[in-house]
Design goal:
globular; 2-enoyl-CoA Hydratase, Chain A, domain 1; four-stranded mixed sheet
Length: 248
C-alpha cells in the first residue's frame, strides 16, 4: 500500500514503519491519523509479520506531536462534535497498537513530544538515543496533559508519582531519566539505533509465533488483572495453547 505520511518496509517477518514527514519533524496531521489507523488495523489480521519496528524519518527527531501549523489551528476552530470525532480517531491508534498481536519496538531519536510521546508509550519496547527526550506537551498548548492514553500508560510505565509531574508540567524527560525510570530499555548512539532495534526484533521473531503473540496478550490483560489468580489463569491457558499448537 502507498502512503503519503508513512513509509513501510517488510523484511521477512519484521515490519519497519517510519513516520515520514521529516520536514515537519514527523508531526501528526489528519492524513497521518488516517494512515496510522489503517496501518494498525491491517496488522490485526497479518499472520506473516511477527514484530513491528516504529521509528521516525530524518535526523531532527522521532515525532513532534500534533502539527501545530496544519492541524492544531484547524481543531480549535471546529465544533465540539467535530473535535470529539477527531479525538476518538486519534486515540484509537493507541488502542490498536496494544490490540495488534505483534510486539512493537519503538526506535526513538531526539524529540518525542505530545502524540510522539504517546506513540512511544503505546509501544512494547523503547530503544532510544542519548539525545532523546520526551514531553507530554499537550498541556503546553492549552490542553490537558492527559491525552492519547498518556494518563493510562505513563503511570504504569514509570510510576504514578513521576507521571503526575510530567503530565502536569509538560517538562521533558531526558534519556538518562527515561532509562533510570524504566521507560526505555536501552540507550544507544544514533548510528546504532536501528541496528539495535533490528537485532532485538530478529530475536523476538525467532520465537514461537503463537507464543510471542500470546505473551503480548497476557501482559496486556494482566497489567489490569484483578489479582494473581486471574493472571495465572491467563498464563495457564496460553501455555496449553502453545503446547497443543506445537503437537499439530
Amino acid at each position: 500500500m502507498e502512503y503519503e505520511t508513512l513509509k513501510y518496509e517488510q523484511k521477512d517477518a519484521i515490519g519497519i514503519l517510519t513516520l515520514n514527514r521529516p520536514e515537519r519533524l514527523n508531526a501528526v496531521n489528519e492524513k497521518m491519523v488516517d494512515e496510522l489507523e489503517g496501518f494498525w488495523t491491517e496488522r490485526m489480521y497479518d499472520l506473516h509479520t511477527r514484530v513491528i519496528i516504529l521509528t521516525g524519518a530524518g535526523e531532527k527527531g522521532f515525532c513532534g506531536g500534533l502539527d501545530m501549523k496544519e492541524t492544531a489551528q484547524k481543531l480549535f476552530n471546529l465544533k465540539a462534535n467535530e473535535i470529539y470525532r477527531f479525538q476518538i480517531q486519534i486515540s484509537r491508534i493507541q488502542l490498536l497498537m496494544r490490540q495488534i498481536p505483534q510486539p512493537i519496538i519503538c526506535a526513538i531519536h531526539k524529540s518525542a513530544v505530545g502524540g510522539g510521546f504517546s506513540f512511544a508509550m503505546a509501544s512494547d519496547v523503547r530503544i532510544i538515543t542519548h539525545d532523546a527526550r520526551f514531553s507530554a506537551a499537550y498541556i503546553n498548548i492549552g490542553l490537558g496533559g492527559a491525552d492519547m492514553g498518556s494518563s493510562y500508560f505513563l503511570p504504569r510505565l514509570i510510576g504514578a508519582g513521576r507521571a503526575y509531574e510530567f503530565l502536569l508540567t509538560g517538562d521533558f524527560m531526558d534519556a538518562d531519566e527515561a532509562l533510570r525510570l524504566g521507560f526505555a530499555s536501552r540507550v544507544v548512539p544514533y548510528e546504532k539505533l536501528m541496528p539495535t532495534a533490528v537485532e532485538m526484533a530478529n530475536k523476538m521473531a525467532s520465537k514461537n509465533p503463537l507464543g510471542l503473540r500470546l505473551t503480548k496478550e497476557a501482559i496486556n490483560q494482566n497489567i489490569d488483572a484483578g489479582g494473581l489468580e486471574q493472571a495465572l489463569q491467563m498464563e495457564n491457558r496460553n501455555q496449553v495453547m502453545c503446547i497443543l499448537a506445537n503437537k499439530l
